[in-house]
Amino acid sequence: MSLVTTKEAAQILGVTPVRVRQLIKEKRLAAEKHGRDHLLQEREVERFKRHGRRSGRMIKAEILKAESRNRRAERRIRGCSFAFPLNCGRKLDDMKEPEFDIYQVADVSTKHITKEDGGLIGRLDAPGHVACIDPEDAESESPGDIFAVLQDSGNHRRQIAELRQFGFSSAFLRIFRALYRQRIPYVRFDAGSGDADGLPEFEW
After folding, report:
1. Which of 6, 68, 105, 135 has the most Cβ atoms closer than 10 angstroms to its Cβ?
2. What is the C-alpha separation between 168 and 98, in angstroms, rounded?
3. 45: phi then psi, degrees, rounded to nearest 5
4. pTM value?
Protein backbone atom coordinates (compact mmCIF):
# COMPACT_ATOMS: atom_id res chain seq x y z
CA MET A 1 0.00 0.00 0.00
CA SER A 2 1.63 3.23 -1.21
CA LEU A 3 1.08 6.36 0.90
CA VAL A 4 1.56 9.97 -0.18
CA THR A 5 1.71 13.28 1.69
CA THR A 6 -0.71 16.16 1.13
CA LYS A 7 1.93 17.88 -1.02
CA GLU A 8 2.38 14.78 -3.17
CA ALA A 9 -1.39 14.32 -3.40
CA ALA A 10 -1.71 17.94 -4.54
CA GLN A 11 0.82 17.29 -7.32
CA ILE A 12 -1.14 14.24 -8.46
CA LEU A 13 -4.45 16.17 -8.47
CA GLY A 14 -2.99 19.37 -9.90
CA VAL A 15 -4.25 21.47 -6.99
CA THR A 16 -2.69 23.19 -3.99
CA PRO A 17 -1.94 21.41 -0.68
CA VAL A 18 -4.52 23.75 0.90
CA ARG A 19 -7.17 22.32 -1.45
CA VAL A 20 -6.15 18.76 -0.51
CA ARG A 21 -6.49 19.57 3.20
CA GLN A 22 -9.92 21.03 2.50
CA LEU A 23 -10.99 17.84 0.69
CA ILE A 24 -9.75 15.83 3.69
CA LYS A 25 -11.69 18.08 6.08
CA GLU A 26 -14.82 17.63 3.95
CA LYS A 27 -14.22 13.85 4.11
CA ARG A 28 -14.06 13.66 0.33
CA LEU A 29 -10.55 12.22 0.61
CA ALA A 30 -9.67 9.62 3.25
CA ALA A 31 -6.45 10.34 5.15
CA GLU A 32 -4.64 9.55 8.37
CA LYS A 33 -3.07 12.20 10.58
CA HIS A 34 0.71 11.80 10.73
CA GLY A 35 2.35 14.49 12.86
CA ARG A 36 1.47 17.86 11.32
CA ASP A 37 0.69 16.31 7.94
CA HIS A 38 -1.75 13.75 6.54
CA LEU A 39 -0.98 10.54 4.69
CA LEU A 40 -3.26 9.35 1.90
CA GLN A 41 -3.47 6.16 -0.10
CA GLU A 42 -2.09 6.88 -3.55
CA ARG A 43 -4.74 4.72 -5.24
CA GLU A 44 -7.47 6.70 -3.43
CA VAL A 45 -5.97 9.96 -4.70
CA GLU A 46 -5.78 8.56 -8.24
CA ARG A 47 -9.40 7.40 -7.97
CA PHE A 48 -10.47 10.86 -6.85
CA LYS A 49 -8.59 12.41 -9.76
CA ARG A 50 -10.49 10.19 -12.21
CA HIS A 51 -13.93 10.59 -10.70
CA GLY A 52 -13.81 13.56 -8.35
CA ARG A 53 -16.23 11.83 -5.99
CA ARG A 54 -16.23 10.00 -2.72
CA SER A 55 -16.07 6.25 -2.57
CA GLY A 56 -19.29 4.27 -2.73
CA ARG A 57 -18.85 3.20 0.88
CA MET A 58 -18.72 6.82 2.09
CA ILE A 59 -21.70 7.85 -0.05
CA LYS A 60 -23.73 4.85 1.19
CA ALA A 61 -22.96 5.80 4.79
CA GLU A 62 -24.11 9.37 4.16
CA ILE A 63 -27.32 8.14 2.48
CA LEU A 64 -28.08 5.95 5.50
CA LYS A 65 -27.51 8.90 7.83
CA ALA A 66 -29.80 11.08 5.71
CA GLU A 67 -32.51 8.42 5.70
CA SER A 68 -32.25 8.12 9.48
CA ARG A 69 -32.62 11.91 9.82
CA ASN A 70 -35.65 11.83 7.52
CA ARG A 71 -37.31 9.08 9.57
CA ARG A 72 -36.76 11.08 12.77
CA ALA A 73 -38.20 14.18 11.08
CA GLU A 74 -41.28 12.21 9.97
CA ARG A 75 -41.82 10.98 13.53
CA ARG A 76 -41.57 14.56 14.80
CA ILE A 77 -44.12 15.67 12.22
CA ARG A 78 -46.55 12.91 13.21
CA GLY A 79 -46.07 13.78 16.88
CA CYS A 80 -46.21 17.54 16.17
CA SER A 81 -43.12 18.03 18.35
CA PHE A 82 -42.10 21.34 16.76
CA ALA A 83 -40.46 24.30 18.42
CA PHE A 84 -42.91 26.56 16.57
CA PRO A 85 -46.74 26.47 16.80
CA LEU A 86 -48.49 23.91 14.59
CA ASN A 87 -52.16 22.95 14.48
CA CYS A 88 -51.96 19.24 15.31
CA GLY A 89 -55.57 18.69 14.27
CA ARG A 90 -54.81 19.73 10.72
CA LYS A 91 -53.62 17.06 8.31
CA LEU A 92 -50.35 17.77 6.56
CA ASP A 93 -51.96 16.80 3.23
CA ASP A 94 -54.43 19.65 3.64
CA MET A 95 -51.73 22.25 4.15
CA LYS A 96 -51.09 24.80 1.42
CA GLU A 97 -48.38 23.97 -1.08
CA PRO A 98 -45.25 25.92 -0.01
CA GLU A 99 -43.97 28.74 -2.19
CA PHE A 100 -40.26 29.45 -2.46
CA ASP A 101 -38.26 32.48 -3.44
CA ILE A 102 -36.10 31.83 -6.50
CA TYR A 103 -32.70 33.46 -6.85
CA GLN A 104 -30.49 33.77 -9.90
CA VAL A 105 -27.10 32.05 -9.90
CA ALA A 106 -24.53 33.05 -12.50
CA ASP A 107 -22.55 30.09 -13.89
CA VAL A 108 -18.97 31.20 -14.64
CA SER A 109 -16.18 29.07 -16.06
CA THR A 110 -12.94 29.02 -14.07
CA LYS A 111 -11.09 29.92 -17.27
CA HIS A 112 -12.24 33.49 -16.59
CA ILE A 113 -10.24 33.62 -13.34
CA THR A 114 -6.51 33.26 -12.70
CA LYS A 115 -4.76 30.14 -11.46
CA GLU A 116 -4.22 31.88 -8.12
CA ASP A 117 -7.97 32.58 -7.90
CA GLY A 118 -8.58 28.89 -8.64
CA GLY A 119 -6.54 27.99 -5.59
CA LEU A 120 -8.57 30.34 -3.41
CA ILE A 121 -12.17 29.67 -4.47
CA GLY A 122 -12.25 26.33 -2.66
CA ARG A 123 -11.25 27.91 0.65
CA LEU A 124 -14.19 27.72 3.06
CA ASP A 125 -13.00 30.94 4.75
CA ALA A 126 -13.01 32.94 1.49
CA PRO A 127 -15.23 36.06 1.78
CA GLY A 128 -18.71 35.23 0.49
CA HIS A 129 -18.06 31.48 0.01
CA VAL A 130 -21.33 29.68 0.78
CA ALA A 131 -21.08 26.19 -0.72
CA CYS A 132 -18.87 23.63 -2.40
CA ILE A 133 -20.79 21.05 -4.42
CA ASP A 134 -19.86 17.84 -6.19
CA PRO A 135 -19.45 18.01 -9.96
CA GLU A 136 -22.29 16.74 -12.13
CA ASP A 137 -19.78 15.32 -14.58
CA ALA A 138 -17.89 12.36 -13.11
CA GLU A 139 -14.91 13.17 -15.31
CA SER A 140 -14.64 16.71 -13.91
CA GLU A 141 -11.74 17.21 -11.51
CA SER A 142 -13.17 20.15 -9.60
CA PRO A 143 -16.35 20.81 -7.66
CA GLY A 144 -18.38 23.96 -8.14
CA ASP A 145 -17.83 26.71 -5.58
CA ILE A 146 -20.73 29.08 -4.91
CA PHE A 147 -20.27 32.65 -3.63
CA ALA A 148 -22.82 35.16 -2.43
CA VAL A 149 -22.63 38.57 -4.12
CA LEU A 150 -23.72 41.12 -1.52
CA GLN A 151 -26.26 43.52 -3.03
CA ASP A 152 -26.26 46.43 -0.59
CA SER A 153 -23.83 49.11 -1.83
CA GLY A 154 -21.98 49.40 1.50
CA ASN A 155 -21.71 45.62 1.93
CA HIS A 156 -20.64 45.27 -1.71
CA ARG A 157 -17.73 47.69 -1.26
CA ARG A 158 -16.71 45.90 1.92
CA GLN A 159 -16.87 42.49 0.20
CA ILE A 160 -14.71 43.73 -2.70
CA ALA A 161 -12.13 45.02 -0.20
CA GLU A 162 -12.17 41.69 1.70
CA LEU A 163 -11.80 39.68 -1.53
CA ARG A 164 -8.85 41.85 -2.59
CA GLN A 165 -7.23 41.46 0.82
CA PHE A 166 -7.79 37.69 0.68
CA GLY A 167 -5.68 37.60 -2.50
CA PHE A 168 -8.20 37.47 -5.36
CA SER A 169 -7.16 39.08 -8.64
CA SER A 170 -8.60 42.15 -10.35
CA ALA A 171 -10.19 39.78 -12.92
CA PHE A 172 -12.06 38.01 -10.10
CA LEU A 173 -13.19 41.33 -8.60
CA ARG A 174 -14.38 42.48 -12.04
CA ILE A 175 -16.77 39.52 -12.14
CA PHE A 176 -18.20 40.46 -8.73
CA ARG A 177 -18.69 44.10 -9.78
CA ALA A 178 -20.53 42.99 -12.95
CA LEU A 179 -22.76 40.64 -10.94
CA TYR A 180 -23.53 43.44 -8.49
CA ARG A 181 -24.52 45.80 -11.32
CA GLN A 182 -26.79 43.09 -12.79
CA ARG A 183 -28.27 42.33 -9.34
CA ILE A 184 -27.34 38.64 -9.48
CA PRO A 185 -26.92 37.48 -5.85
CA TYR A 186 -24.98 34.24 -6.37
CA VAL A 187 -22.23 32.95 -8.64
CA ARG A 188 -20.94 29.41 -9.22
CA PHE A 189 -17.38 28.89 -10.43
CA ASP A 190 -16.65 25.58 -12.15
CA ALA A 191 -14.35 24.31 -14.88
CA GLY A 192 -17.33 22.98 -16.81
CA SER A 193 -19.42 26.14 -16.58
CA GLY A 194 -20.34 28.36 -19.50
CA ASP A 195 -18.36 31.13 -21.13
CA ALA A 196 -19.12 34.76 -20.32
CA ASP A 197 -18.77 37.30 -23.11
CA GLY A 198 -16.63 40.30 -22.28
CA LEU A 199 -14.42 38.51 -19.71
CA PRO A 200 -10.74 37.67 -20.28
CA GLU A 201 -9.63 34.03 -20.42
CA PHE A 202 -6.68 32.49 -18.59
CA GLU A 203 -4.85 29.25 -19.37
CA TRP A 204 -3.95 27.14 -16.33
Report:
1. 6
2. 39
3. -65, -45
4. 0.51
